[in-house]
Specification:
The protein is an alpha+beta fold. The protein is built from 6 helices and 9 strands, in the order αβαβββαβαβαβββα.
Length: 250
Amino acid sequence: MKSIFVNLALFVILTIAFSGLTSCTNLAKSENGTKESPVPVNGNNNQPSVPTDNTSAPGETKNSEFPPPPSILTEAEIKNIDGATFKLQDRKGQVLLLNLWATWCGPCRGEMPELVAMQNKHSDKNFKVIGLNTDDESIDEIKEFAAEMKLNYELAWLDAKTTAGLFRYTRFSAIPQSFLIDREGRLRAVFTGGGPRILGQMKEAVDKLVNGTEQPREPGKLEPVNSGEPVNSGTPVNSGTPVNSGKSKK
């Protein structure tokens, strides 16, 4: 009888723990064929230092109020599931929310209804959500998943080199994570992990940027994300601890 109660208690504890997961370790292979390892992160707001990416995007200056996206992203050629390719500079004039995801990632799935709602709400204001699949999943898998989730936004693949570079930039080797980019191609915010708090911050930042109601900020400061405090440009923050999804790449 005692063992039954012990096993029951363990089951309840594990159920609660897994229900609170806000991110998944990305299992996509890096360029050299090895799998990406989670980067240890602090469980509080004392964020680890991150090397600054000082490379400006095309047309940007280092005196801009907001920094350019990391060069690994601006230089990437991104392929849509319809076969077309583009670079970020091709999308200037649009507000972009680049969302890294995979079909097997529970927290990614959990935030998708909110991404759909944001796309619906701001579609007439040249706002685009672009879902960047990080696991090189097949077009059939992605289309089937998109139909199941009723996704209304653009879907594309992010290659292993760019994915690994973004993980190094954010010091967060997990998904979901999202990058908010303004109409001039400047990086406004980085969101790592999922959950209600992160989604609330994301929706607020998108609303302000799309509607032009954000307040002026000090040069070199990004939109406050995740920790609730401004962070230095090139020093994105992270939230929570990467966890293994328990599912390998298809």
